[in-house]
Amino acid sequence: MDHQTFIISPQIGWILLAVLSGLWIILGIYWGRKAKNLDGFMLAGRNVGLAFGAATAMATWVTSNTTMLAPQFALELGIWGMIAYSTASFGLFLFAPLAKRIKQLMPAGYTSGDFIRLRYGRGTWYLFLAISIFYGFTWLVSMGMAGGILMYAISGIPYQIGMTVILAVCVTYTLFGGLYAVIGTDFIQSLIILVGIVIVGVGVISMVDFETIHTDVLRDRPMLINALMPAAIMAIFNNLLFGLGEVFHSNVWWSRAFAMRSKVGQKAYTLAGFFWLPVPIAAGFIALTSGSLGLNITSPDMVGPLVAANVLGKTGAIVVFAVFFCSLASSIDSLLAATSDLITEDIYRKMVNPNAGEKLLRKVSAGIIIGLGVLAWAFCMPRIGTLATVLFFAGPMVGSTIWPIATGLFWEKANAKGAFLGMLLGSVIGLGAYFYLGWYTASLIGASVSMITVIVCTYAFPENFDWKTLDEKH
Amino acid sequence: MYFSELFLNIMISFSLVAISASAVALIVMVIKDIKSKELW
Question: Is there a contact between B26 and A227 if contact means CB atoms under 8 Å apart?
Answer without folding.
Answer: no
